[in-house]
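In the previous chapter we treated chains in isolation. Here, by contrast, the input contains two separate entities that must be folded as one system, with a combined length of 382 residues.
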Amino acid sequence: MATVTVRNGVDVSALLETIEAIKAKPELASFTFRARTIWQDGTSAAAEIGSFLHAGMQDETREQPFTLVGDEPPVLLGHNKGPNAVELLLAALGFCYSVGYVANAAARGIEIEEMSYEIEGDIDLRNFLGISDDVRPGFGEIRAKATVRAPGANEQELKELCTYVQDTSPVKDVLANAVPVKTTIEVIEAS
Amino acid sequence: MATVTVRNGVDVSALLETIEAIKAKPELASFTFRARTIWQDGTSAAAEIGSFLHAGMQDETREQPFTLVGDEPPVLLGHNKGPNAVELLLAALGFCYSVGYVANAAARGIEIEEMSYEIEGDIDLRNFLGISDDVRPGFGEIRAKATVRAPGANEQELKELCTYVQDTSPVKDVLANAVPVKTTIEVIEAS
């Protein structure tokens, strides 16, 4: 009897091997991810996302860094050269949930045919614009709605998996709970 | 005497008009931003970021949605088709800080020649991988380092502005402080 090792495009054997390797050597679960943004003009900047540290070693599998452009829409004084920061954050939540759902489904033997997330967040920009600090700078609430088609699974297990994915999602965690953010500045030229 | 209305590529007159308009009508500061992610295969998904709500009305300035692809590196069972979710989150922080710094500098009369942010975050993926819930799922710490060149400004004001931008940054806020994230699922086909 043939063993299915790839489900939902995820190599389940490799996933289980990774998990066993980390159980034996927990430092293999440690990563330091990075991004660099370079201001372009006005509200637009470019981002580069390249190598990262895995268990203290550089991962060199990306020959070129990924690049993306951020900007604001005209109503926020930009030129729509790219999505803005808070929109990217919502996309990051969708990506995180998606990977978690599909990979865990694969491990549990659930075949997914279709999966999407609609994410939205409400924000009052008075704080950001220096008008009022009675409102918080960021989103007051974020809502995510998953849609899944998996004819071979039962509804109960698909819902239970959604809850599990929320509880283990790195992006959900850092939104729903506080993270220390340490910001420093180097002035390379001033008067 | 000519009045400078554009500084650092930011239309300062338009910025001040926007602020006055919001002071008169605070609902103009309300936005609902959105992103949609569509699972592709394995750990990869596409994101679409298009229209948003501004004061309850659809902003229609984007003719096409922005699209981006997320994926994992091979060590996390992906194929490096794009950055992963937590890397995008770091880029979002850099974009947010960048807009805040450059726009506020413009309003304060500070000309910026160069501005970048290096962002990094440490994460232990044992929780995400279902190995241990003794560690949190997300970043344990995020570090951001700004580099700025502004020959006409003094170092003290550049540093003070960095602090101000942290305190008013939407993305910094939702990382450093908790946000309610409400997640639901619609099962469109199950057994």
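Chain B has a mean pLDDT of 96. Residues 101 and 153 of chain B are 13 Å apart (CA to CA). Compare these points with the single-chain example from earlier in the chapter.
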